[in-house]
Design brief:
The structure holds 2 protein chains of 2 kinds. Chain A has 1 helix and 5 strands; from the N terminus they run βαββββ. Chain A is an alpha+beta fold. Chain A has one domain. A 5-stranded antiparallel sheet of chain A has the order 2-3-1-4-5. In chain A, a hairpin with a 2-residue loop joins β4 and β5. Chain B is mainly α. Helices cover 65% and strands 1% of the residues of chain B. Chain B contains 14 helices and 2 strands, in the order αααβαααβαααααααα. In chain B, strands 1-2 form a two-stranded antiparallel sheet. In chain B, 60% of the residues are buried. The chains are: A alpha+beta, B mainly alpha.
């Protein structure tokens, strides 16, 4: 499975789906990492910087890879 | 350990617990059934008076308290509420109606399949179809709105009520109704049932196992993690049933079931659609309630009210003969109502 250095969580599944559509290639949707949430929501996994235009009201948080876990950066 | 292995392990815990509970006295193919057990518990508290389905099921208490305890230990206990509580009550009511027309929740549907009950095949198709329709709404913007943080007192209230009712059940059993025949009269010893519930509550909370979520994630994001739990429950229960001589393949004479396939399909269509709208199957609602989610408590209370109404007004199916006219009308109304709520709460945004 491909590794990603950032994960974006959302308030709704729809938020994740529209983020993925707008972001295009390089974004993969998977369940939110269990270490971040006990909810069964959908998260977007990406590499590199995330342009401001992709960050809307649906985005709950952005996390960066930190060892074996994730560290919140937004 | 990867998420997939954890979910598979949780599925095995649930499957083996179900086999164990049947060995100790629960009805056949009903080691666990969230809908049936809420219905039995509601009957034990005399909210309905169907004499064959009244027993306060410790499994329900165990699932909620297992989730509550493990979520406190691992910091997942985050009380929140306020995401369309009344709509969630109504959707929970509809889900229970559909489940009692089929005669089982999604978990029991898998247990019935693993026992060889082929009537559950059409139910599975209906469940998947309901989830598929729900996913169309999800991908077009369906949401019941955001929940807000709540106090620990608010989040602990439902688990506390569960503890109170369980103590009352042990201390003053005369307050409760006990079936003398039928499925309600068949049950494992209290402490074994409670322990199995606790194990399932802990395993499900840690892994987010959800019968509806597994299918939803395939439709929405092509992810199979949660479906592995679904498969693990099926395989472990199937092996358990084969070993204990409880596997019986066929349509006729299956325990607590009927062969009205259209209504098995439509009943579980309601459950699938409603579960997607609630964000999880009935088991998942109990787990979230244990984590302090007040919106899921509302869904559970809606299911409890639905169970009482289903038996007071003859909406529930009878084993062997299936639903009567009231149950069929109720399922049609439930489908229309869920689709209306889904349409109203879907707000598409360009993007």
């Amino acid at each position: 499975m491909e590794d990603f250095d950032k994960v974006v969580t959302f308030h709704t599944h729809y938020g994740a789906l529209t983020f993925s559509r707008r972001y295009g290639k390089g974004c993969t949707l998977r369940p939110v990492p269990r270490s971040l949430s006990s909810s069964c929501g959908t998260a977007a996994y990406v590499n590199g910087d995330i342009a401001e235009e992709f960050i809307d009201d649906y985005v709950e948080g952005i996390y960066i890879k930190d060892g074996n876990g994730w560290k919140r950066i937004r | 350990m990867s998420d997939k292995i954890r979910v598979a392990a949780a599925g095995i815990v649930i499957g083996l617990s179900a086999v164990l509970l049947v060995s100790f006295g629960n009805p056949q193919n009903m080691g666990f059934c969230i809908a049936c057990f809420i219905r039995d518990s509601v009957g034990a508290m005399k909210f309905h008076s169907a004499p064959i389905v009244q027993y306060f099921r410790p499994e329900i208490v165990g699932i909620v308290l297992g989730s509550f305890a493990i979520s406190v230990v691992f910091g997942d206990f985050r009380p929140r509420a306020g995401s369309s509580p009344v709509l969630r009550f109504i959707i929970g009511f509809a889900v229970m109606t559909g489940a009692l027309v089929f005669l089982g929740c999604p978990l029991r549907m898998v247990l019935r399949l693993a026992g060889g009950d082929l009537n559950a095949v059409t139910a599975l198709l209906g469940f998947v179809a309901g989830i598929g329709v729900g996913c169309i709404f999800l991908s077009n913007g369906f949401s019941l709105g955001r929940a807000k943080e709540e106090s620990h007192a608010e989040g602990s209230a439902f688990p506390a009520v569960m503890i109170f009712l369980f103590i009352l059940f042990l201390a003053v059993p005369s307050l409760f109704a006990f079936s003398e025949s039928g499925p309600g009269s068949m049950h494992a010893p209290v402490w074994i049932a409670l322990a199995a519930g606790l194990a399932v509550g802990i395993a499900s909370e840690r892994t987010r196992l959800c019968m509806a979520g597994g299918v939803r994630d395939i439709f929405l994001i092509r992810d199979y993690t949660l479906l592995i739990g679904f498969a693990a429950i099926f395989v472990s229960t199937l092996i358990g049933n084969l070993v204990t001589g409880r596997f019986s393949l066929g349509l006729a004479d299956q325990p607590v079931s009927h062969s009205m396939h259209l209504w098995n399909f439509l009943g579980m269509f309601v459950v699938g659609l409603g579960s997607v709208m609630l964000g999880g199957c009935p088991l998942r609602q109990l787990i979230l309630a244990g984590e302090g989610n007040g919106d899921s408590v509302m869904a559970v209370l809606g299911m409890a009210a639905g169970a009482a109404v289903a038996h007071n007004f003859s909406l529930a199916s009878s084993a062997g003969t299936g639903p009567g006219i009231n149950g069929k009308i109720a399922v049609v109304i439930a489908i229309v109502m869920l689709l209306a709520i889904a349409a109203i709460k879907t707000a598409r945004r360009e993007g």
